Amino acid sequence: MPSTLAARRPSNPAVAGLWAKQKASAKKRSQLGGPPSIPYLFVGPAILFTAVFVIGPLLQTLWLSFFEWDGVSLGKWVGIANYVAALRNPQLLQAFTHSLIFVITFCALPVFLGMVLAAMLSRQKLRGLAAFRTILFLPQVISMVVVGVAWRWMYADNGTVNQLLQLVGIRTTTAWLGDFTWALPFIAIIGTWVMSGLCMVLFLAGIGKIDGELYDAAKVDGAGPIREFLSVTFPGLRQELSVAVTITIIAALRSFDLVYVTTGGGPGTSTIVPGTEIYRLAFRAGEVGAASTIAVLLTLIIFAVVFAITRLLREEQS
Amino acid sequence: MRHVFFQQHPLVKRQHGRLGAVASMVVAASLALTACAPGVQAGTTSNQGAISTAVPADKKITLTLSHYETGGGATAIDQLVKGYEKLHPNVTVKIAYTSFNDYGKRIKLTMSSASAPDIAEVGQAYVMTGPLVKAGLLRPLDDYAKAYGWASRFKAGLLDEARFQPDAKSFGTGKLYGMALGGNMAGIFYNKNAITRLGITVPFANVADFEKALSTAKAAGDIPIALGNSDQWPANHILSTLISQYEPQQKMLGWIYGKAGATFDSAGIQRATETMASWSAKQYIDPAANGISMDDSLSRFAKGTGVFSISGNWNVTQLSDQMGDNVGFTAFPPAKTGQPLRATGATTSPYGISSKSKNPDVAANFIDYMTAPAAAKILTAGGYAPLTSKGQTPADASPLQKEFNTVWSKVLADDGLTLYLDWATTNMGDTLFPAIQELMAGKITSKNLITTVQSEWVRAHQ
């Protein structure tokens, strides 16, 4: 990214030298007739697209969140009233609480499982490793709507899950997604199924990058598989960990399609998440301002969480 | 190493210097673009002058009609358009179809755009018609209704559904904003083999009679009422059908229409809600209902699981195709033997005229053509429950369709449709449907449900 490079101030002498050289060549270029704005031509399309399709709508949403608007007649400016109402709304609090459970099953569990699977698969030469990887990664490729419908059938009163339970002697005809206690954890666990493969593939790639000599050294020092994992594999996977946590936590917080397809937020309000609330307010209740407010709050929370994670994992390393 | 990673990480990339300047310019530009209140100014309809019921024959006229009908419903509209174009060769009717899922999201934008369709299908109540009326995007049709005599064509109740107050705070009274092509209604589908085996006979004389049948089915180990309610709305058809029997019709309609002083907290509604709760507790309603979808439940019913299904004519085609002669339809019985039939049902979504239409006279003429007795045959063949007595069921209709139409015309003769409870406020569906799920699971009492629902009603109508 030339513009980022050009904007960053050099901090050590070697870089400063390079910096000066680059500046000089840039000058030469411009003397030769090339305008200094050429780099912008390269990033221009990307910036334009981002501005029109990401930043623009984001600001529009922020703007709308200060209005009471039904989506068609003239909106009324209400200042921060939507925010006050949102923060006082117990249903929204409930929705965000459900998101926290999703964070566990979309992020914590898959990262843990992915790490264990990757460590095990990478320790020995396994026949058909590629097949394993593909199968475990498959859920990531399937559309969430398809995933939702498939699991809805498996969780039905006569579905696969109850048939399996029957094999181990538990006779039940509970329709899990219709149960006030179980609907949320059962939807949440679908996230683990979807995300674990992604984490595993990320970690396998990361392990492949770790210097083999480190493993040899660990063996010579008499390290067992667990010691080896803690001393060599895990420290080598920090970057992949950061990526995995970031991706999965965003998926957890902004989840919508899965809930929408499986329960629509029910039974009662037992599985509502911020995503379904935004949809409901904007497209069914005709409260576009209130919907935008939740969208803005959700965006801020996601930014804050991701920022915190990246900071945390960075400090751990230094 | 670590540093490289963070430079590449899109979420923590810092924006310094000139890039920052570019970013803030973008910000400023976007703000400038959006620095005005969203939406359109209401109430500036001017085309309310003299009207004509004649279609000028000397110039080319193009009408646009947008709808979300599929299958037979869409075919019937196509046929009507062809017939009309034959009658008026200088008029072209362009059809713009949008799937129902997208239609509701787009209708507000479509109708406020410069290229709004002349005629648009608009769902009743506050979700679609309300905001469009409030924004002045629909043209009141009372002058045309008078000129064409629409009021004498239908039962009064059928036109009231498309009437709205100008502030869009209540409906059922006020100006007329649309005309419907047909109707829909819920009742009892039953599995013929199952009721024969159980010794149950239809029709039912009263609710107690039906309840006895449910008890018989349960005792025999059957699922009495098949229901899939994970979509949240289907169970409402059972509750509102029960309310229709116990609550006086005018009070129920007054509550849905937003009549001042109406209340959900009445003896009739209390009785209906308690009945619903007890049916769920006794497992007369499939205990898995909240966990399976209506589609899944219907295909189970078609395969023989469940003796009854309380739903509407939108399922006639599917059930008739899958069950053949093994399925029947009967009216939900009144509370006391001999009382007139009352059923959850309404007209289908009415067609309104855009206040931006350049040819409102022709648009109204086409709506008149679509809803005239002469069109009833085409509409009925397309699966619309006929709104006029001229709508004879076609000879090649399925037995189930014929049974439905028989019940339908009886209810219509009594003006006995009681509409849908979720029409009462914009948020009523989102308040009532989850509450019914909670009632069915025994999480709340019928008293709780009534309080919750009524406070949403008060909130919306204050």
Could you please describe the fold and organization of this structure?
The complex is a heterodimer of chains A (318) and B (462). Helices cover 75% and strands 1% of the residues of chain A. Chain A has helices at 2-7, 13-31, 38-64, 81-88, 90-123, 129-141, 144-154, 160-167, 183-209, 212-220, 225-236, 238-253, 257-262, 274-284, 288-317, and strands at 67-68, 76-77. Chain A has a two-stranded antiparallel sheet with strand order 1-2. In chain A, helix 4 packs across helix 15, helix 6 (129-141) packs across helix 9 and helix 14 (274-284) packs antiparallel against helix 15 (288-317). The longest helix of chain A is centred in the middle third of the chain and has 34 residues, at 90-123. Chain A is globular. Chain A starts with a helix and ends with a helix. Chain B is α+β, with helices and mostly antiparallel strands and 462 residues long. Chain B folds into two domains: 61-182 and 348-392, D-Maltodextrin-Binding Protein, domain 2 (3-Layer(aba) Sandwich), CATH 3.40.190; 184-346 and 417-461, Periplasmic binding protein-like II (D-Maltodextrin-Binding Protein, domain 2). Helix content of chain B is 46%, strand content 10%. Chain B has helices spanning 2-8, 17-34, 71-87, 100-112, 129-134, 142-148, 150-153, 156-160, 192-198, 207-219, 234-246, 249-257, 267-281, 294-302, 316-323, 360-371, 376-381, 399-413, 428-440, 446-461; strands at residues 61-67, 91-97, 119-121, 138-139, 163-164, 175-176, 183-191, 308-312, 327-330, 345-347, 351-354. In chain B, helix 3 links the parallel strand 1 (61-67) and strand 2.
